[in-house]
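Hi R.,

Here's the chain you asked about this morning:
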Amino acid sequence: MAKMYWKLAPCGGDEGGHEWDDDVYDGVRKVYVGQDLTRITYVKFEYVKEDGQVVTREHGTITQQPQEFPLDPDEHIIAVGGSYHRPSVTEMITSLVFKTSKGKQSPLFGPKYLLGRLAGTEFVFEDAGKKIVGFHGRSGNAIDALGVYFEHDSSTTSLPLYKLEARGGKEGRAWDDGSYDGVKKLSICQDHCRITYLKFEYEKDGKIETRHHGVKGDTPLKFVLDSPDEYIKSVEATYHKPNLIRNTVITSLKFETSEGKTSFFGYEVGKKFVLKQNGCRLVGFHGKEGDAIDALGAYFAPVLPPPTPLNPAKKLPSVGGNGGVEWDDGVYDGVRKINVGQGTDGVSFVKFEYIKGTDFVLGDDHGKKTLLGAEEFVLEDGEYLTALEG
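And the predicted structure, written out as tokens:
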């Protein structure tokens, strides 16, 4: 069964440092956390891949000796909590604590109190005991923000699937289109301050499925992709609470495709976020809706490599005498078995068994068998002929 990775938006600051994304692994083996007097300055994660290989990723700056939190081989992290605050110019992570599937809890990294008060706004990442398999965030001189990946089973796709948390307002009705092969066309409406309507034409097994959300305006704007070769690579959006509007809503959308095309809708006002997963294509949307589009999230799936082009068969001229009747067995995926019969003057008979897909195809008899009989030459699975001498 394929995995779906639920990617939760990071908590903390969205201005300082630079963005990083460790992606997903089979699990986390060890965590290192460094701090100073007011904040978390450093994190290092030891991840385990499915083949047992250990991969290390580190972020931030070491100011004091980092503390270590190891996990057992059959143990995994199920929750991360902490706090974030603005100790200087930008918001940063001020404390962290990790909980595991065995009921263990790490020490509290970072100060719990600053100047007699809790060290900032508290947060918790937890999903009913699901395993945390990766982290992402922002860092520079310290850890500015931290987000997580949870692992879920998915029966809707044969490939790994990433579901990126919807960003924007908290109000409105939740909707979820699920995942498809790709997006073929978008129709978008806007009013004087927000995105009011979205209509998506998805492609699934060669068929078109349509979904729409929000309230349709007079003349929707169109954005058409040259699918299946072209796909949406990223969505950049802003959200804000405009004057005289009750809800926080999506105010602008900018789509970028694999062909380098971009298309912008709305008004770039408010906080910005980006829906993007490296090496992946956008295959579906989800979010919140009411009189407009309150929030937007997306599904991403890996970009499949182009199929390896088949090498055309090259027919070489036959070598030998001019007598007899011409024959041609045609072209197959390979040769499995060869029968060669001898006569008094040389080779008197040949017959070939070919491979086509998962089937074996028996060729015709060529020549005549003699009393000397025929010898058989069988190739192993995966073995093929590279040369013929005679």
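The chain has three domains: 1-156, 162-304, 334-378.

Let me know if you need anything else.
M.
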